[in-house]
UniProtKB/TrEMBL annotation:
Keyword terms, alphabetized: Membrane, Transmembrane, Transmembrane helix
This protein's record includes keyword Membrane: yes
Protein name in UniProt: DUF4492 domain-containing protein
Annotated transmembrane regions: 12-34
InterPro entries, A to Z: CydP
Length: 64
C-alpha cells in the first residue's frame, strides 16, 4: 500500500507543478500585453499627465 501512496504523491506533485508553471506563464503573458507601459488619457491636463507618467514638470523643477 505504501508503493501506491508514494506513486500517487509523485504524480500529484508533478501535476501541481505543471499547473503552477502554466499559470505563471499565463500571468506573464497577461502582464506583457495589458500592463507594458503607463497610458495617458487624451482629455487630461498636461501637468496631471506628466505626473502620471513620472516626468517632473517645469514648474516643479524651477521651485527646487
Amino acid at each position: 500500500m505504501k508503493d501506491w501512496l508514494n506513486f500517487s504523491n509523485k504524480t500529484l506533485v508533478r501535476e501541481i507543478a505543471i499547473i503552477l508553471v502554466i499559470k505563471l506563464i499565463c500571468l506573464m503573458v497577461i502582464k506583457a500585453i495589458w500592463f507594458d507601459a503607463p497610458t495617458i488619457p487624451k482629455d487630461i491636463d498636461h501637468q496631471v499627465a506628466q505626473h502620471i507618467a513620472g516626468m517632473p514638470s517645469a514648474s516643479q523643477e524651477s521651485s527646487r
